[in-house]
Amino acid sequence: MSLRKPLPLIDLASRPTGEPSASSGIRERLDRFVADARDYIADFAPIDDSHEQHPDTHLSRTQLLSLLIGFVGCDTDEPLNDRTYTLVYTDPESRKSNYQTICIPDYRAASPITFTRTTGRGGRLALRSTGETLADVLVHAQIFGASNHYYSRVSPRFEELPTAAIISPYSTCAGGCLGCSRGAVKSFTPPPKDYITRHVEQLAADFDHRGWDRAELVSVNITTGCQPDEERELSMMLRLIAEYRRHGFTNAAFFPFTYAIDSAAAMEQLREAGCLGFIGTVECFNDAERIRQWGKKKGSITFDQHVEKYRRARRVGFDIVETDYVLGADSYTEMLDGIRALDEARVAVVPNIKRNYTADQLNSNHPDIWNHGMTYIAEGFHAALATYRNGTIKRRAARYSVAYLRRQGENVTLRDLPIRHT
Q: What is the pLDDT of residue 377?
């Protein structure tokens, strides 16, 4: 497979209107994609999973809608300081709630979908052509830069819980991935020299301000910018973990998200320091496309090398081995075959829908996602979610979250918790 041209990063200064060029064809393509997707969703028959312990294995119609909107992006009258929103959707039939992000892309004037605020934390997603409401949502967060941390588990009332955090204290990255959303919106910044101490002090102060016991934090995903090599990456991870311990987060288990850690020796040091899981970054399964969209630094790690790395992580003794997977870059067949191969290696494949901030990012998606539409997205997600039987960080955190809420006097189960796949 020949490589397509590299993806350029956009210059924020040259983004005055968001109007696509007349020859781009983006508006027509998205109109057709959304129309076909809505027909698919209307005919979609959700699987009744009410008998299952976990609510995150099968998709509802509303979850499919949220993935569609996440993929195509929205137009808005909101200031463009906020390019990404985390929204909460609730399915009217199953009553499942799920989190999903939307982006406000450079081609936003071509998007068939608009996002507006309503009252309080409310928002509305509507079809531009008719004004028809697609979903009334809760606005959980709006994001421009790379977040230092956020709390990834919430109560049935969407209140943040102290049990799990996803942290990103290192606000730059050696990966230089060409298709990176952070790169597209220029949110990487040089971190201060004492970024580790500052980050943990900030989190500790937030716990104290909220009246939370630091011992309640049981899950920390270290999803941060990567260092140039394994030695420096390992050093950063170990210093972060040690700083958390010094600040009284005694029960926290850690889950590093990294492409730079590869050797069994480095993995063993992470295990000894308190890491219970290992998160890889395969991103896509086609080796040539990985280089094109994620660059040579990260993208040149082949799919076979990723699989062997995850097998190595299992041999070292990690209880949970996950990999991040972005739907859209692979052919339909490559996607399903790759998920199957990872499942056989006992890897949980955590699916993400790609946020396309630029026309180049939108055009970088494989033709199959345009040709198969929501069939591609739904079957890819269902195949990935089936791998959750191998164990996931989010399910572990969910169990602790239910236990925490019960200690607070709430009668809840796993099925009461809103769903987050990212």
A: 97
**Rg (the chain; Cα; Å):** 21
**Cβ-Cβ contacts under 8 Å for 215 (sequence gap 6 or more):** 248, 249, 250, 251
Q: Would you say 34 and 72 are in contact if contact means Cβ atoms under 8 Å apart?
A: yes
Residue 412: CA atoms inside 13 Å, Cβ hemisphere, count?
Answer: 23
CB 393 within 8 A of CB 155: no
CA dist., res. 347 & res. 341, Å (int): 9
Nearest to 154 by CA among 381, 417, 406: 417
Beta-carbon-side half-sphere exposure of residue 360 (alpha carbons within 13 Å): 16
Distance CA 29, CA 241 (A): 47
What is the reported pTM? 0.89
Task: Give the chain's residues under pLDDT 50.
Answer: 1-23, 145-146
Which amino acid type is present at position 284? Answer: C
Contacts of 100 (CB under 8 A, 6+ apart): 63, 66, 67, 69, 70, 86, 87, 89, 353
How far apart, in whole angstroms, are the C-alpha atoms of residue 257 and residue 259? 7
Query: What is the Cα–Cα distance from 183 to 298, expressed in whole angstroms?
Result: 14
Q: What is the model's pLDDT at position 3?
A: 41
SS3 for the chain is CCCCCCCCCCCHHHCCCCCCCCCCCHHHHHHHHHHHHHHHHHHCCCCCCCCCCCCCCCCCHHHHHHHHHHHHCCEECCCCCCCEEEEEEECCCCCCEEEEEEECCCCHHHCCEEEEECCCCEEEEEECCCCCEEEEEEEEEEECCCCCEEECCECCCCCECCCEEEECCCCCCCCCCCCCHHHHCCCCCCCCCCHHHHHHHHHHHHHHHHCCCHHHCCEEEECCCCCCCHHHHHHHHHHHHHHHHHCCCCCCEEEEECCCCCCHHHHHHHHHHCECEEEEEEECCCHHHHHHHHHHHHHCCCHHHHHHHHHHHHHHCCCEEEEEEEECCCCHHHHHHHHHHHHHCCCEEEEEECCCCCHHHHHCCCHHHHHHCHHHHHHHHHHHHHHHHHCCHHHHHHHHHHHHHHHCCCCCCHHHCCECCC
Closest CA to 173 of 219, 212, 116, 228: 228
Q: Hey, what are 199's tokens?
A: 């980050």
